[in-house]
């Protein structure tokens, strides 16, 4: 039995990724990327992030936290970003491995103690821990799926940004 | 001269925040919060995060990274979340301090080396560093603004989530 490797497995244009890999191998500096967001405060706890020329999304806090609940709050956005990043990782690495993904749903949950945010204690204001459940439907073997999973975890930009300490420099200009 | 402290300074409902602080002081367990996002893969590098009942936003990768460029990518979403979180921090703490914010724009930039994401090296796939420039227009004194800034940095949930190592557990179910 022969397999036909196409560029449309999982609807992923893997050719673009392969081209980028080859380009980075020839010119390592191509891998040094910069990303940006510009946030404008809209009054209260509302704000909007402009990313390239995409439509902005409203950020707000729930009523209980003093907001007007017109959008997900920033810590929820972080959890969404992690899930989105893992989805890219599964899609990319499954395609490279010839694995077809039938369906993929990722549940992300984070525990956050508000004491520091509310000024009641000093210390860690962020997530205490983040827990992710990945539901991946595929005909691939359990071994192939475990190898895929391990690959995704070892290469996830948002996963690593969260589980490692990243220097964050914040200047009032 | 007497100052009238209102609940509408900066359009922030600071009363709700004060009520929450008092509640947490009486029942510390109230501060233990959980947050969630459910991400559904949409084919290719596209996915959507469902947060509570808010409208979902499209996540994708740029063409150069093999995507179809229909939305911000996950690492950009993290930068947006950081800016949104800092906006809440400035609005909340300015209001507590009686500082009026005229305008607030936050530029967030992150450096990310793609080698690990592309499978060319092992190691850190996430942001190498994140740099934030805050433009805050206010009539408050430079000293008051610096104190506000220091308070925001010491209490930012997303800021601390990024600049500290948070345990991230990812299970294939």
What does this molecule look like?
2 copies of one chain form a homodimer. In chain A, the strands form 2 sheets. In chain A, strands 1-2-3 form a 3-stranded antiparallel sheet, with no helix packed on it. With 173 residues, chain A is of the alpha+beta class. The model of chain A is unreliable at 1-6 (pLDDT under 50). Chain A is globular. In chain A, helix 2 crosses helix 3. The termini of chain A are far apart. Chain A contains 4 helices and 6 strands. Chain A folds into 2 domains: 36-71; 73-163, 2-Layer Sandwich (GMP Synthetase, Chain A, domain 3), CATH 3.30.300.20. The longest helix of chain A is centred in the middle third of the chain and has 23 residues, at 74-96. In chain A, a hairpin with a 6-residue loop joins strand 2 (47-50) and strand 3 (57-59). Chain A has helices at residues 14-26, 74-96, 142-155, 157-163, and strands spanning 32-41, 47-50, 57-59, 103-113, 127-137, 168-172. Chains A and B meet through helix 1, strand 1, helix 2, strand 4 and strand 5 of A and helix 1, strand 1, helix 2, strand 4 and strand 5 of B.
């Amino acid at each position: 039995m022969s397999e036909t490797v196409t560029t449309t497995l999982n609807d992923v244009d893997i050719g673009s990724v392969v081209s980028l890999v080859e380009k980075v191998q020839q010119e390592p500096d191509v891998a040094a990327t910069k990303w940006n967001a510009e946030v404008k405060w809209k009054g209260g706890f509302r704000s909007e992030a402009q990313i390239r020329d995409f439509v902005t999304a409203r950020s707000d806090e729930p009523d209980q936290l003093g907001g007007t609940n017109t959008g997900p709050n920033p810590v929820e956005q972080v959890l969404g970003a992690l899930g989105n990043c893992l989805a890219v990782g599964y899609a990319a690495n499954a395609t490279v491995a010839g694995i077809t993904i039938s369906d993929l749903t990722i549940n992300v949950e984070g525990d956050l103690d508000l004491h520091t945010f509310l000024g009641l204690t000093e210390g860690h204001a962020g997530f205490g821990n983040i827990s992710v459940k990945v539901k991946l439907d595929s005909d691939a073997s359990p071994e192939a799926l475990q190898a895929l999973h391990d690959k995704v975890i070892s290469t996830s930009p948002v996963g690593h940004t969260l589980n490692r300490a990243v220097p964050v420099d914040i200047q009032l200009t």
